[in-house]
Amino acid sequence: MTSKVVAMLLAGGKGTRLGELTKDLAKPAVPFGGKYRIIDFTMSNIANSEISTVGVVVQYSPLMLNKHIGIGKPWGLDRQHGGVSVLAPFSDREGGSWFSGTADAIVKNLNYVEQYEPDELLVLSGDHVYQMDYTKMLAFHRSQDADATISVIEVPMDEASRFGILNTNEDLSIYEFDEKPENPKNNLASMGIYIFKWDVIKPYLLEDEKDKSSDHDFGKDIIPKLLADEKRLFAYKFDGYWKDVGTVTSYWETNMDLLKEDFQTLLMSKEWATYPNEENRPPEYIGATAEITNSLISSGSFIEGRIEDSILFIGVETKTGSEVSSSIILPDAVIGENVILDRVIVTSGIEIPDHAVIRSQGDEPVVLSKDTLEDYLNEGGGQNE
Known about the structure:
10 helices; disordered C terminus; GlmU/GlgC-like_hexapep; EC 2.7.7.27; UDP N-Acetylglucosamine Acyltransferase, domain 1; alpha/beta; 29 strands; carbohydrate metabolism; single chain; 2 domains; Spore Coat Polysaccharide Biosynthesis Protein SpsA, Chain A
């Protein structure tokens, strides 16, 4: 069923609203959930849906993402025909430039898609956390003989104005697309997941590329043109867990969701596994003074002190007397003796000195990096005893 589908995974986002977390990383490469990166969820969806051809389109700070994807072995995509290809901006005889929009990222990789002669193009984002069987969406798309199918999720009505909203008829055919409407007509928000008939979408992509006034974006430009030409567009309802990890607060909240029983299937499901590309580390060491409650502790960690409602990545060390609560500690960070951290995100490789006390004082968690640590220790961003 999926043999004539090419997936294009857009993984080039800057993620500027994630601040220090994306200073040297593309947003999809940001560590998540103890031993994963954000992109692992979409890559695992591809693997579990048995889609065997995927182009991962990279752009900003791609080094770690390139290394992480590699030849796609964790997701069964290390194969001679199809498999995974990492696609970066390039220069040809006519010059080259960075991708200027989601549609532009596809049209500049037109030759990659064309070589597989696909029936359908599946367009995905690399910075969402969710589990989805794309074969079900594909079956719906084909059953409706749709030219394009857009996955939607119901959001609270008072938040609908923050999203691209699809207005539909009873049969879920789309008659209107509203980008962040002030007065939304419904709460069906686009998830940025598209299936297109390739022979239908290709000429629209080529025409859009010539339009100097276009943003070269699927939501802003391509979808409205398809609707104007009365193409068959349908909404596919998704009713599972889905989060766009776009801000520091949403990143913290989505990680914390993993500690709730209702959401643990995101990591624990045997039927729909999430595959990491993890380093080979020794088992975690839980010391004599350690007290751990409702937390995820990853391999290679050395734990003393009290850990509560927190996620510790690989190679983290917490020393005697430390208290870590409602926090996310990224790989190889060291938490000194008698340190108190509450609602804090510690970036990779940071060492928190003994006796530091840092607590979030507002709605947004504190992010400690090499550039911000001293500020929080010395200028009252947190507390320091």
